[in-house]
């Protein structure tokens, strides 16, 4: 009897051990999340593009739309030119808004920095903004090739000290006119009224204009020694 009881309990114990779940093997390694999948690049929606990103490079078709918006967001009217002969402060007219906006835009983008007064005619004008510097040409290339229409309806006259620009109606306008260039009258030049767009005036530094007008030039009115516009900044 004792033998049968011992056999019974032995079988019961082995049967219980077989039903136990064996523990899973564990390791001390850390599984890394797969991050090799590359997300597609995010494309800017048109609604969040900057004004420049929407329009640049400028051309004759989109320039006016650009400056129509730009002039509202950039109301500044005063700039300072740092030249080899001193500083010239200019006030830009609000009623020639596209030409004002153009000058402010180019100033903020440092397009005038490193350019020259490339045409000097004593008792007439000093003309600036031109350059063959590669960096200046690169800046112009990024901005584009465009002309502004004339705006001579406000009654501004070519008195001494105004800043003006050839109008695009002039024959072969791209050769004679450029939004990247401008001239300052040293004396009254009323024969230019109606042909050129006056968009500002010198409020300080006409003595500097007079000094530049005195420099020696070659037969093409180009100064024998370059007269640089080192920097142009917006004052307010």
Features:
single chain, 236 residues, alpha+beta, eight-stranded antiparallel beta barrel, globular, disordered N terminus
Quick take:
With 236 residues, the protein is α+β, with helices and mostly antiparallel strands. The chain contains 7 helices and 8 strands. It is 28% helix and 22% strand.
Would you kindly provide a written description of the structure presented here, covering whatever features stand out?
The chain has 7 helices and 8 strands; from the N terminus they run αααββαββαβαββαβ. It has 236 residues and is α+β, with helices and mostly antiparallel strands. It has an 8-stranded antiparallel barrel with strand order 1-2-7-5-6-4-3-8. A hairpin with a 3-residue loop joins strand 3 and strand 4. Helix 3 crosses helix 4. It is globular, with a radius of gyration of 37 Å. The model is unreliable at 2-14 and 16-37 (pLDDT under 50).
Helical proportion, percent range: 25-40%
Number of strands: 8
Structural class: alpha+beta
CA-CA gap between termini: 115 Å
Share in β-strands: 15-25%
Low-confidence stretches: 2-14, 16-37
Helices and strands, in order, run as HHHEEHEEHEHEEHE
Q: Order of strands across the widest beta sheet?
A: 1-2-7-5-6-4-3-8
The average pLDDT score comes to 84
Shape: globular
